[in-house]
Amino acid sequence: MPTSPNRTLGFLAAALASSFWGCGFFFGKIALAEMGVGSMVFYRFFFATLALLPLLLTHRPHFTASEWRTLLFASFLGVPIQFLVQFTGLAHTTVSHASLMVGTMPVILAVGATLFTIGGKKERLHLLGWTALVISTTGAALIALGAHHAKSSTGPSLFGDLLVVLSLIIALGWVLMNKSLLARHSAIVVTAYGMVSGAVMIAIIVPLAYGLPPVHGISLKAWAALAASGILCTATTTLLWNWGMTQVPASQAGILLNMEPLIGSLLGVLILHEQLGVLAYIGGAMILAAAITLTTQNPTQPADPALV
């Protein structure tokens, strides 16, 4: 007999996942100081795979042929494509700017949930939701326009910010396809086999596109950042998020993704001593306000009562 979803634990899992994700840009920036984007992503998923290997040994998959295709395509989008695009963007902008741009994800996710069927169910976005989308998009534009005038090569840039947003749109496909698989399979199985499949793709793509990742000449600080980003910010976060998505609708959990830009931007400003311009503060406030309004006011109406 299936158990009823636990909304409290589901939201808590999503909040923890978002909080840990908020450290990802911070750790990534540390590693990028000593290696290129391809190498950094390669090692991030190397450590994530080490953490997930025990789950591969204890949980056997029971995917159909169609579900394997969905899992592999989702992994392709969510791992090599999303992360290579996202961290290429980070290499051209700041941690605080990249983190604020991630604040658009709750709205992107909510809109995606209204446009695409998830596990045979679809949600409808009302006028308030579309208003939040416009406000969030305007906020992202303000952040990007503020970055356009950066004078330092180490500062934010329009190119870097837009790549981060592009990676979020790519991530939407990964989230929605995973959600459909989670309707029939455990979060552990979907996470472990999805992440490791994506890591195998990275192991093929990175050497061909970026060259072999360096082994020598990397500081202990960078190795620690890579290990933390792989184990804490990838394996742990994805397990928590995927399990949370089995308990609550994706659009409603989106509010908790705001922990990521909050923590990421704080780490960038307080530890890396980055500076945010006036437009970035205004844009960030608009993004957060739109996402909070979108989810707390519940402007989405599930087409299926089971989503309530």
How would you portray this structure in words?
The protein is mainly α. It has one domain (7-303). Helix content is 72%, strand content 2%. Strands 1-2 form a two-stranded antiparallel ribbon. It is globular and about 50 Å long. It starts with 6 loop residues before the first helix and ends in a 6-residue tail after the last strand. The relative contact order is 0.24.
List the helices and strands and how they pair.
Blueprint: H1 7-21, H2 24-32, H3 37-58, H4 65-91, H5 95-101, H6 105-115, E1 123-125, H7 127-148, H8 158-182, H9 187-210, H10 220-245, H11 250-253, H12 259-270, H13 278-296, E2 300-302
Antiparallel strand pairs: 1-2
Strand/helix succession: HHHHHHEHHHHHHHE
Using DSSP, what is the number of strands? 2
Largest sheet: 2 strands, antiparallel
**First and last CA, distance:** 19 Å
Fraction of residues in helices?
A: over 70%
Q: Output the number of helix runs.
A: 13
Overall shape: globular
Unreliable spans are 148-152, 299-308
Q: Give the overall average pLDDT.
A: 81
Q: Concise description?
A:
The protein has helices at residues 7-21, 24-32, 37-58, 65-91, 95-101, 105-115, 127-148, 158-182, 187-210, 220-245, 250-253, 259-270, 278-296, and strands spanning 123-125, 300-302. The protein is mainly alpha-helical.
